[in-house]
């Protein structure tokens, strides 16, 4: 599948409006700039001149992963963006070679797998992308404004613009456009606005997980060479519900996340944070942190539920409106699918616009409804393994969970299986690749050898804090 940016621009209209400067909103703006004479991005926050956290992304200090498929879309919308990220301090690493990963009671081999990952903070990623977006000659940014409602034609069967005001109130102004894109996130007010216009309330599916996680930056100690740039101690649901991750980012920092399901997460104090790390399934993360130098406070978050709004099921929906990113569907953040799924929705929007502006809202919501089926299934099937989590469980959940556990274990001692799994995880291949006859045979018959059982980084004591610059 190719994004529209790899093809000649297709004129669709004069003016498009995106409200919400999320990654999905930034990518949508880039895509729309190829189809409209003008594009306006509206954002409630004031954009800082640099990679700074912002209020509209309260979770910006947590570990973020842009999967390989999402990076491909980003590079197609903004060619050369990866080189700019590297110049700004980010790194691109081979996912399996640079990461020590503990799952299903075994360590995965650190081999060159051919699937790379981005190693940088969310603020750095957003800032570099914003710089590219601002450089587009037909894009205008209106920050410090929020969407206060939709403007419609007389029927109302078409959205013709968006009402804007300063955050918290003030005089209202109307910005008119041929297409309005809602990229405002989980708190999107589009469901209420559509209902006020006489449309049915969009159906929602929620899977409550109450994930609690805390994040902190640390200075990577000089001389500390454990053989990995990233470390993950994975949960093994439903028995093991805690996880921990260290990710190396720009400026030689570690971005650390600790968390758990159903409220089982650390508090935002140092003693609780370190005690939680010490209680993980392996000692490596705690040993890396206990003498490392913290940089800044601990940020604690709570994610209550997966949320999918089924716009594709609505019997009536206005033309001229598109919903994208977390405003359409948001996932448990520990699975790392959010930014990539938003990128794929932006790509889908470009493909729908290649057939013209007429009917684009209907085409788009149907295509995205299908697009979301796989990532939603992958995220929620993991969460639904916990008996306390309420939700409709498919009849095959037990069989799929058993098979998935066997696959995870297989990736720890079969390099071919690991490479296939990583391509599926990064959305480069369909999950069907895990069910090929060859993979099924391996899953059912293979067992780890003594080498696989003994594999993994040896626990290391961190460099004493006195040596940290």
From TrEMBL:
Q: This protein is called what?
A: FAD-dependent oxidoreductase
Organism in which the protein naturally occurs: Archangium minus
């Amino acid at each position: 599948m190719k994004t529209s940016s790899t093809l000649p621009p297709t004129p669709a209209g004069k003016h498009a409006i995106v409200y919400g400067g999320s990654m999905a909103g930034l990518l949508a703006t880039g895509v729309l700039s190829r189809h409209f004479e003008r594009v306006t991005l509206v954002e409630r926050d004031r954009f800082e001149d640099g990679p700074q956290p912002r209020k509209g992304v309260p979770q910006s200090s947590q570990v973020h992963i842009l999967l390989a498929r999402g990076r491909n879309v980003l590079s197609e919308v903004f060619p050369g963006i990866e080189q700019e990220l590297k110049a700004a301090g980010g790194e691109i690493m081979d996912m399996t070679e640079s990461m020590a990963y503990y799952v299903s009671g075994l360590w995965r081999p650190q081999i060159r797998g051919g699937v790379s990952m981005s190693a940088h903070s969310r603020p750095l990623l957003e800032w570099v992308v914003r710089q590219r977006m601002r450089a587009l000659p037909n894009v205008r940014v209106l920050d410090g404004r929020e969407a206060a409602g939709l403007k419609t034609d007389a029927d109302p069967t078409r959205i013709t613009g968006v009402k804007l005001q300063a955050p918290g109130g003030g005089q209202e102004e109307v910005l008119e456009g041929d297409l309005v894109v809602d990229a405002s996130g989980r708190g999107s007010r589009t469901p209420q606005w559509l209902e006020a216009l006489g449309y049915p309330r969009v159906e929602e599916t929620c899977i409550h997980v109450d994930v609690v996680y805390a994040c902190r930056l640390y200075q990577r100690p000089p001389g500390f060479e454990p053989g990995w740039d990233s470390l993950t101690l994975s949960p093994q649901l439903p028995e093991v519900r805690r996880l921990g991750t260290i990710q190396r980012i720009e400026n030689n920092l570690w971005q650390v996340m600790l968390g758990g399901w159903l409220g089982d997460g650390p508090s935002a104090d140092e003693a609780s944070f370190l005690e939680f790390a010490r209680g993980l399934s392996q000692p490596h993360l705690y040993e890396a942190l206990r003498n490392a130098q913290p940089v800044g406070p601990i940020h604690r978050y709570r994610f209550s539920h997966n949320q999918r709004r089924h716009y594709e099921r609505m019997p009536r929906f206005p033309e001229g409106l598109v919903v994208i990113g977390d405003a359409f569907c948001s996932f448990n953040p520990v699975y790392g699918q959010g930014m990539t799924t938003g990128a794929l929705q932006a790509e889908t929007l470009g493909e729908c616009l290649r057939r013209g502006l007429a009917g684009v809202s209907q085409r788009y919501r149907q295509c995205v409804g299908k697009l979301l089926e796989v990532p939603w299934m992958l995220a929620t099937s993991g969460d639904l393994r916990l008996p306390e989590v309420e939700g409709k469980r498919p009849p095959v959940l037990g069989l799929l969970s058993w098979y998935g556990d066997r696959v995870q274990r297989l990736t720890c001692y079969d390099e071919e299986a690991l490479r296939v799994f990583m391509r599926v995880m990064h959305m480069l291949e369909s999950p069907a690749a895990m069910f090929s006859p060859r993979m099924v045979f391996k899953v059912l018959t293979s067992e780890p050898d003594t080498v696989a059982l003994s594999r993994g980084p040896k626990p290391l004591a961190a460099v004493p804090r006195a040596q940290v610059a």
